[in-house]
Amino acid sequence: MAGFGALVVKIERPGLGDGTRRVGPFPDDDPHPEKSPLFLHLNTAKKSITLDPEAAAGRLLLQRLIQRSDVLVESFAPGTLGRLGLDGETLQRTRPGLVVTSLTPFGQDGPYRDFAGGELVTQALGGYLFSMGEPEREPLRLAGYQAEYQAGINAAVATMAALYERDETGEGAHLDISIMECVATLLQAAPQAYLESKEVTGRAGPRLLLRNPTAQYPSTTLACRDGYVHVHGNRYHWEALALLAEEPRLLDERLKSAQREHADEIDALMRPWIEAHTREEVVGRAQELRLPFASVLGIDEVLADPQHAARGYFVAIEHPVAGRAIHPGAPCEMPETPWQSRPAPLLGEHNEEIYCGWLELAREELVTLRQGGAI
């Protein structure tokens, strides 16, 4: 929302800031709160103010900020807003058109409501962890913060929809985003398959093994001379796969008619040719045969990929403390609303702009609020 032009004000704890400011790895192992790559990535184009809602003066400031806002996004434990005097009933009475978006591990109700949770917990309880890894090994955590990112995407879409509804009806909404539920949306058809056949979809390693009668194979990752390639095909590509692998035994009708059941044998027949060639050679030959193969790229290669370069996706942003860094660009192209590539804010950088500009406080009041720990 900030990237496409909305005024987004990030409220941070006085003196400490957001927790992501302390997440590394840091350049030169310097744990500086303005140099966290994760914070810089997540907060481009936002403004930062400091505020302690537990302090009486801080709560009053927060209430005044809410009166000027269309959306309040919060990730406190359930019940915290009510304890601060900002429960849904109060907010709807004082700011009728406000959209409140709450993100928590398990939602605002249910038996897990008050449990502590995090990325690993929500991946596990959402069912996603069980599907990651090799069939004979323990489940694997999906890299990064994918559960929380998925929740953020869901929350952004829901918030925009609620704003459209607000514009039509004049009524706000309280959106309850459960990260655990967001993870469960990533399970594809596994729940339906279980309900229909009582078959639990297990781990398949790098393979995609769809559980249906028309399942196609290969769809996996295989090693080549200088890395890995994603190998993909189906029964309509069968002759091309045999040509690529220079392996006539792949033309056996037994393999073609039941690919999924013979995945090990198909991999074994394709592996020698692929292992003897580079990624460029494998993918180049696959393209000649109209096979949808792809190189498995490292992060350094993703940044240098000519497709991204041609579209100008990654952008360089200069930060006053962290210096120049490369960031992902716009999630979509909107010609009438150009993407704003501004650096993440310094801690409390916009206190004066928001408090004195928005709320019309005198600068002297900021000094008093700061000395009292409210900001």
Task: Record the SSE blueprint.
Blueprint: E1 9-12, H1 37-42, E2 47-50, H2 56-67, E3 71-74, H3 80-83, H4 88-94, E4 99-104, H5 119-125, H6 146-169, E5 173-178, H7 179-184, H8 190-197, E6 219-224, E7 227-232, H9 238-245, H10 253-257, H11 263-275, H12 279-288, E8 294-295, H13 299-304, H14 306-311, E9 315-319, E10 323-327, H15 351-358, H16 363-371
Parallel strand pairs: 1-2, 3-4, 4-5
Antiparallel strand pairs: 6-7, 7-8, 9-10
Structural class: alpha/beta
CATH superfamily of the largest domain: Crotonobetainyl-coa:carnitine coa-transferase, domain 1
What is the total tally of β strands?
A: 10
Q: How would the global form be characterised?
A: elongated
Ends: how far apart? 25 Å
**Can you tell me the CATH architecture of the largest domain?**
3-Layer(aba) Sandwich
Q: Would you mind describing this structure in some detail?
A:
The protein has 375 residues and is an alpha/beta fold. The chain folds into 2 domains: 9-186 and 347-371, Crotonobetainyl-coa:carnitine coa-transferase, domain 1 (Rossmann fold); 219-296, formyl-coa transferase, domain 3, CATH 3.30.1540.10. It is 37% helix and 13% strand. The chain is built from 16 helices and 10 strands. The chain has helices at 37-42, 56-67, 80-83, 88-94, 119-125, 146-169, 179-184, 190-197, 238-245, 253-257, 263-275, 279-288, 299-304, 306-311, 351-358, 363-371, and strands at residues 9-12, 47-50, 71-74, 99-104, 173-178, 219-224, 227-232, 294-295, 315-319, 323-327. The protein has a 3-stranded parallel β-sheet. Helix 9 packs across helix 11 (263-275). It is elongated and about 80 Å long. The model has no long low-confidence stretch (mean pLDDT 90).
